[in-house]
Structures are given as C-alpha cells and as structure tokens.
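Weekend entry, working from home. Most of the wet-lab plans are on hold until the incubator is repaired, so I used the time to fold the two sequences that have been sitting in the queue since the last round of cloning. Logging both here for the record. First:
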Amino acid sequence: MGNENAVSAQETLAHEEEDPTIDNEGAYHASELKRYVPLLPLIAGLACSRVGLNASVYSNYAQTDAGFISDGTVLAALIVFAPLLFAITKLNKPLSKAFVNRSATAVFALETICVALLEYGTLFPLQEAVRFAIAALCTITSTCAMYYWLRRARGGGVILGATLVFSAIAASELILMLVNCLPVESQAIIATVISAAQFPAKHIAKRTSNPFQLVKNNEPRSAYSLKASIRNKRLLASSALGVAALGLTVGLLRGYPNGQPIAFDPASRIAYMLVTVVICMAIVLICLSGRTGFMTTGIWIMLLCLACLAITSFAAFPDSLSIGAIFATSLNALTVGYCYYLTIEFMTHGWRDPYYYAFSGWIVYFVTRAFARIVLSSITPLNSNAELTLAIMADAVVASALIIFVRFLNDAKTPAQELPDVQTSPLQKAVALSSPEEQSAIASLREDSFAAGIAALKKQYQLSERETEVISLYAQGHTQKKIASELFITPGTVHEHIRHAYTKTGLHSRQQILDFIHEQ
C-alpha cells in the first residue's frame, strides 16, 4: 500500500509539472486567448459584410425588416444562386484558390458600391425599380462575401466555428446600433467605410494562421460528438431539415400579423440589440468553456424558446407589437448565426466545393423565410386573422422541434454498425456529405463487419456450414423461398436449418440474430 501511494504521489507531481494551470494560471489563460487572435480578421470581415447588407437593405433594423425589399431581393438572388449551385454541382470539384480570392475581391467591391448607392439614395431618392435592383445586387454580393469568410473557417472545429460566427453577429449588431444613432448623412459614410473594411481584413487574414491550424488534438472537430463520423453527418442533415421548418416560423413572425414590417421605437431597438448580443456572447462563452455539445440540442432549445417568447408576446401585447418583434428579430439574427455555423460544419464534412453547402443552406433558410412572409401578406384569410396566424406559427415551432428532436433521438438509438446504410438515403445524397468513394469504402467495411459477426456466431454456437450459409442469408432479409433458390435446396430444408440454428443459439428472431452480429 505504501509503495502504491508513493507511485500515485509521483504521478500526481509529474502531472502538476506538466499542467501549466498549476503554477501560472494567468499565463496559461493568456496563451489560450492568444490562440484565437487569428480569428479576429475573419470576425471583422464577416461582421463588416453583414453590416453592409443590413444597413442598406434592411434599414439598420429600424423595423423588423424592409418589407417587400427584404423578401423580394431574396427571390431575386435565388435567380442567381440556383444556377450557381447547379454549376458547382456539375463541376464536381473544388473551385481553385485563385478564383475564390478574385471572386471575393469582386464581391467586396460590388457590395461597397451597392451600400454607397443605397445609403446615399436615402438622401437623393432613387426610383423604386432602381432601388430594388441595387438592393438585389447588394443581397447577392454581401451574401457571397459572408460565405467567403465562412469558407475560410472550415475545419476549425466547434469552438472556433461558434466563436467566429456568434462574435461576428454580436459585433455587427453593436455596429448597426451605433450607426442607427448617427445622422442620416453620417450613416451613409460609415456604412460604406465598414463594408470596404473587408479588403484590409482579407489582407490580414491571408497572413495569419488558418482556423484548422489552431485546433488542438483534444478538441472536437464537430459538435455532433458521437464517435461515428457517419452519424455526425446524419445529424447535420437532420439539422438542415429543422432549419427549414424554423425558417417558416421566422418568416411569419417577421410579418405578423398582416405581412407588414413592425417599427421599433428607441427602447425596443436597444432591447433587441441587447438580447441578441447577450445571447451571442453566452453561446461563445459556453463553447469556450468546452461544452461543445450545446451546439447540437442546446442551441435548438434556445431558438425554440425565443420563438415561443415572440408568439406569446404578440398574443399578450397586441397593441405593442414591438415587444414581440424584439424576440422575433433576435430569433432571426441567431438563427442566421446558427445557419452560418452549420454551413461551416457542412463545408468541413462535405466532399463538394464549400460554396455548394453555402448556397444550399441559403436556399433552405432564407428562401423558406421569404416564402412564408410572402404567403402571409398575400393570403387574405391568413393576414386578416391574427389568431389563425399565431396558431400557424405555433404549429411551425412544434414541427421544427419534432423534426429535429425525433430525428436526433432516432439517430442516437441507431446502432453504430447500422449507420453505413444511411449513406444511400436520399437526404444524405442531397446534402453531399459522403463522396462516392467513401460510400464504396463504407459498404465494403459493412460487408467485412457482417462476415466477422457471422463467423463469431458459427464458432460460438457450433453451427454447421450449411446452417451458417442459411442463417447469413436469412439475417440479410432474404425469404426462405429466396434462400432455397440461392442454395439449390427446398424451402422445407431452409426452414429446418433456421429452426436448428434458433435451437443452438437460443435466439428467437431475425432481429436478435442481427443484434448478435452487430455486437461482435
């Protein structure tokens, strides 16, 4: 006992010598913070591109949105993004680095020009058609700019991805609030300068470490922290479905009750900014503390709670819709942040070019959101009945919760050995998370695993060669008639072999046989 205690003490001392937090905790935490410094240009770039879009197209969030301009420009952008998505799909290989960098420079310049035209258009009014065309171009270019910054963050893992996205959302909200407090002339200048700041941010980012170089070996690469990467990908696909359902909710909330935007007074505008910034920073702190599992189910609970608060506030304060608009607009900003985070995850795990996942994610959320808003403003029985609209929004929240949590539960209880079957599902193919080569390798792995399980069953229960052949085909789902045809024996003989195998093994069903095979 004395020797064991001495060894234990020595091990403890050795551990303390290796742990920098024991003797110099302050220096250790300082070094940890320095590790995230290379993220600053990416945070600044993403925040600047978002400020440019929201300051010009969304009117600095002086109201929940800009009405038809907001959703109409999304549909106009779809006309551009859909062919781009098709072209990237047909290309079937990543875009070159040179092309990506040149394209980024072009969209930064175009976004800055569009922001300047739209902002100064408030001083010198533009024709409605001209303003809409510029706003649509601004939506396209700023969206491409934001996806450039997300593209640079792929492979960085959970902590870096969440820190980048939600820090940028918080920073952009603070900047938008400050811009909103300035005179109109100053707003135009500041918004244009901020949009142009993406150029120096890009220059600095190219000279700092890439996010994937900053990840420590013991940090999770994915928030979907179950061990099988296949399962991680399936949960990502499930999250995309949940986002689509939540997009319907947000679209209805932003246009409640009749499809028109809700104006903010100074108090509610500040409240919206505070709610959004506080939640964003809370998410960052949670992930920095190592609780990366929050980015799977925890964030969904938070988003759905915000949706419930918005619906409840609209119902409780029908004469003060700005109260509900606080939560509705915060929900939109945070859902956008989560979509950006999911985009990074898809870019990391997928085999197509990162812009494939960026444009696909944009369609899933933003087009769904715009569609819901347009439907609300176009269908008279809906926009003239506030109670019906509230009920539909509540239904959409429930649908989103059911989609995400039921699928998460199903995935969590699926045995890891059965997951290769998932790779051929339509959803997996649609989101392109598994390359054809990976699917082939997984199928081969599954066959090897199944053969090893059958061999273990034969050895443990002393099955004959013929019984093993029969039980192998039976476990794969073949009928007794099909097995008889395969082995050139009668169905009655097949039945006897299966009965003998059941007797020897003590198993009583095809599922129990499969369970035994998968456990080996």
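Second, folded right after the first finished:
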Amino acid sequence: MTTNSGFKYELDSDGIAVVTMDMPGQSVNTMNDAYCDYMDESLAQIKADLGQLKGIVIASAKKTFFAGGDINKIMQDKKEQAWERAFELNMRLKRQLNELESIGVPVVAAINGAAMGGGFEICLACHYRIAIDDRNVAVGLPEVSLGLLPAAGGVVRSVRLLGIQNAFPLLIEGKRFSAPEAQKAGLIHELATDAADMMQRAKAWIVANPTAQQPWFDKKYKIPGGEAYTPSNAMMLAGAPAMLHQKTRSLLPAPAAILSVMAESSRVGYQAAMMIESRYFSELLRSPESTSLISTMYFQMNEIAAGASRPQHIDKKKVAKVGVLGAGMMGRGIAYSSALSGMDVVLKDISIENAEKGKDYSRKLLDKQLARGKKTQDQVDQILARIQPSERNEDLSDCDLIIEAVFEDLTLKHKLTKEIEPFLKPACIWGSNTSTLPITLLADAFSDPSRFIGVHFFSPVDKMPLVEVICGEKTGESALAFIYDYVQQIRKSPIVVNDGRGFYTSRVFGCFCDEGLHLLSEGVNPAMIENIAKGAGMPVGPLSVLDEVEIELMRKVGVTNLELDKQQGEDFHAVHSQLQDMSVRMCELGRSGRVSGKGFYDYFEDGSKSLWAGLADMFGGNTEMPVDDIRDRIMFRQVVETLGCIDRGVLMSSRDANIGSLFGWGFPTHTGGAYHFIEWFGGDDAFETRAAELTAKYGSRFALPAPLSEIKAKLN
C-alpha cells in the first residue's frame, strides 16, 4: 500500500512502513509548517496501520537526508517578532518527534546524506540509526554557529544518549561528524555500503528487535556519566562557564544557553527537560546575536558559496596546474593548499634549495596529519608528488595560473612579472598575492592587464579560510571568474573588491591598529586599550596584534606607502598616520615585535609576556576616558572605514564587507561583521548619532563619508 503527500508512505508485505521525506518544490527537506503537515499525515497513517505494522524506516528522496530548520521561516518570525508563533511551531515539532519515538514499534533512520540540525534531531528520535559509509554523509547539530540551539529535542536526547561530557563536541562546538566518526562517537549504530544495503539492514534490524524503544524510556536507565550533580560532571560544569567566557567573552549567548539546558535537563523528567530546551531556544531566537549570525554566517556565506560576486555568464573552470613564485611563508602555504586540492604545483624560487625548503613545509603539515590518522601514507605521497620545486622559468610553461608571492616591493614584482611572462602560455592568468600594492599599478608590467588580478591570501594560508580577490581597472571578467573558481577549488571563501590603496581588509585592519595607537598616544592606559578591545570581541588587542604581525613589517609597509603617495599624488599615509609613525619610532628603539622578543610587549623564555614598562614613560597612561568611548572608538573606526570603502567603490556588496571582516582580521562574530555592525548597534539613526558624537570629541576620522542612505544605495 502506498500513499503520497510531501512524504511518501509505503507499507510492504512484511508490515514495515517506509516514510520517504521528499518535500515538493525544495532541493532539500527542511523543518517548517509544510514539514509539520506532512509529518502529521504520516503519523496518522502509521497509527491507522498499527495493527499490522512491524516497524518504520524514515528515509529521504533528496541527496541530503534532511537540511535542518527552515532558516527563512526563522528569520521571518524574527522580523515580525512572531515569538508566540515560533514557540507553537517548536512545540509542534517536539510533539511529533515524541509521538514517533513512542509509537510502539521499532523506528530506524536510514541516513543517505547529510543530516544536520533538525535533520539529525529526527534521527535521534528514531530507535536505531544506519548511515551509508560515504564522504557526502555527515551528521551534526550546528545550531550554535547560528546563535541558536537544537530545539526539536536535540539537546535533551543527546545528553541522554551520550552523557553531558561526551555531548560537548556535538552541542557546544557544533561539530560535524562523518559517518565513521559518528559511529565511533555513538551517534549512529551501523554503516551500510549503499542505499539498498542500508534499507536491507534497517528492515533486518526491525525484524530482530520487535520491542525496541528509546533507552531512556526504561525506568532503570541512567544518563551515561550521571546527571549534573554527579561529582565528575559537577566539577566540569563548575569550570565550563569560565572556559566558554574565555572563548566567547560572553558575547555569544548560545553556548552558555546550551550548557544550561544540558545541565538542567539532566535533573528533571523527559517532558520537563523538553520544555526547558524550548524556553532557552525562545530566548536565543529573540537575541540580536542570532540575527547577526544567521544573516552573515548562513545567508551571506551561502551567497558567496553560490558565486554571488562571480560573473554568472562565464562557465566554471578547474585549475589543473598552478605556478607559485616565491617559496617563502606565503608561497609555501599557497602551494600546499593547491596541491591538497588536487592541483599540480610548480613552486619556484631563486634557488632549488629554497624551493625544496618551501616544499618541506607541506611535508611537515602532512606528516602531522599522518600521525593523527587524518591521512594515509599513500595520500601524503600523492599530495607531495604534485609539488614540483623549481628554479627554472621554463617549468611554468603549461601552468593555467601564476600566483606571485614575493616580498611587497613594487620594483621587485614588476621585474619578476616581465621576466616570467615570456615563458607562459597565452591564456595564463596572473595573480599577485599582495596586501597593499595597487593592482592596476602592478599590472603595468604585464602585457595583457585583463588577465592580471590581485589574490590576497592571509597567513597562515593553510588555516585562514578567506581570500580577498582584487580587480584592477583593466581586470577582465574571465580572470575574475577564473580566480573565484580557483579559490573555491582550494576550499576557501573569496570576497571580491575593486582596486584602491590598502584594498579593503588591510586598510580597515590598519585602522584598528591605528586607533589603538591614537589612544595610546593620548595617554590611555595600554592595558585598558587591550582589554577593552578584547571585551568588544576582537581576538586580541591592537598592541598585541602589531607585535604578532611585526612592527618592522609595518615600518616597511609605511615606507612603501610614502613612496607610492609621492608617485600617485595621494596621502594614504594619513589614513594610518599613527600606525606608520609609531612603527618607525618603535623600530628606532629596537622594539620590532614578537620575533625579536620585544615590541609593545616584552616576551620571556617561558612563553609569557607583559606590556613594556617603557610605554608609561613615553605616553603616561593616566588619561581618564569613558570606557564606552574607548570601545566605540576602536569599533567605529573600523566600521566608518568600511563605509568609506563602499563609498569609494572598493566594496560592492555587504556580504563581502561582512565576511571579509570576520575572516580577514577577526571582527567580532556576534555583530555579524563590519557592515552588519550598524544594525547590531541599533540601526542607522543610532549609528549616525554615535558617529557624530565621536567626531565632535575625537576628530574627523569618525565622520561618515556620506549619509548612510547614500552609501547603502551604492551596494549591489
């Protein structure tokens, strides 16, 4: 017998019903009102057939098993402040899954693809979980990354299944588990080779376990490791808030809320635990942080993944071979990332010895993965075989792409471009890895500037997920599309900006450091500057980060910028005047940064550090200034400069502004990014009012380049 709705219901001759989720008009299954209607229909059919039913298999007709909650629906509820409607939907979801798990016959989840968020909550409501052993299959509860928590029973069931401590990676970290990892963690029970094998195993388990039920429905069942007041858990829970504060500075409420649900739900009955979970979810749903994270980390990240800033009329291409010029810190990381993604790489330097040292970097990274069981020896050998160290220009002749990654010196880059180009095939794209030098100026040394583009990687390349793609005045759409595809091929996120001094990320990051130095020069205590910046959500304070990136490097960049100012008739030096002048001053004092052991901090052999006592002699450090002013100066300086990038046409979309700020220099995640900060702060009026106050008190660098309405009108 077969019935159809959004879910297909089939009852076979053995009395096993297969409910296949296939929501019409959607590429994936999601939890929304339509899902609830389909689930109610399926549950009604199941109850009607209970007399002849031996068990149920929950399956999916989509490539993924189930994508999770309907984010559009969630954002609609947030926008309309339909809190009661959202709560009612949540309770309806809970009721359905509670009904499914207590239906009276065995229920098996047949996981054919990714089961994330609400999708895995469906699986947890089943008595048994089987997944195909395939790289496209993954399970997890990533709601924490969106500022929410799993609210269809995910927290309650996970704690009862795994115990409080073992549920941490799943719930607090939002970890994504492959099928084998999920089986090892106890999240799924069995692996299958393919869909047919999975269905056969599911039905066999039902036959073999006719009285199956959720383990926590047994009156004798105890949560693994005990409830919250069990000594080992109590000790862990006592320290957990401090650990979370260290990671989030209490700016992201979701991890703390999840921790509370984990602890509180372990000490009450099942239905009371479910209500606790829903109440905390309702609080998180109302939070501005969840709005920020969903807007940026879900919608805008998906837009970038879909190629929103890429010319759509140009077909996608795969890079087969890339030439990397320079085997130093950046070049070796680019070579590794490219080879890891299946490309052949020519890693060229002035000597074969330097090139081999660059390849050794990949070897060391891969050896670590081998030791951790993340790679096999065969995989390591294959990746290393793709990297060809070289000192010969001729070895670049069949490359699809060249990425030049030598020192930030205009003359050197021009010389290298002219030297290498004659050896390249006609269609080869040239990408320059630069953080500050104008792409249009660099392209003067290349015969076809339409094939010349900026590719700004971040250090360390193997860890940083962002690449800033910079279009010069004559960069063609084909080159942009090609580089966009390359960046995605190496599994990084591309943002696209137009040419301009400092581009976007370097220019605004420099303003963060520059404002910290303005505060220092005005006599604000350096410890206050550092701590207030971190309290606002920056990863580290401006003085600390300058030591890390090297004050000497900042001095050299400043020299280059002054030379370019003279050539171009510009005054870019003024944008970062304190940063560049202070870098010269510190280097003259022999304090060039962490590598030298002294900068704004003193560094000690045991790995500790402390602020340099000499800062008090230089700047005093006794100036009293409202904490709100210090915090807002640090944050508004970055946002105002971001708006300037939009106004000048460097930035063309809010998604590139937000994602670039979050992943480029660590702008506070809870705000949603440097552009979304305006909404997080309270909206246009509140932001413009505060910017005007800061301008009146501290100077024109806080003045908006134009009214916000005019700036926003320039975005795509």
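Plan for Monday: verify the second prediction. The longest helix spans residues 627-647.
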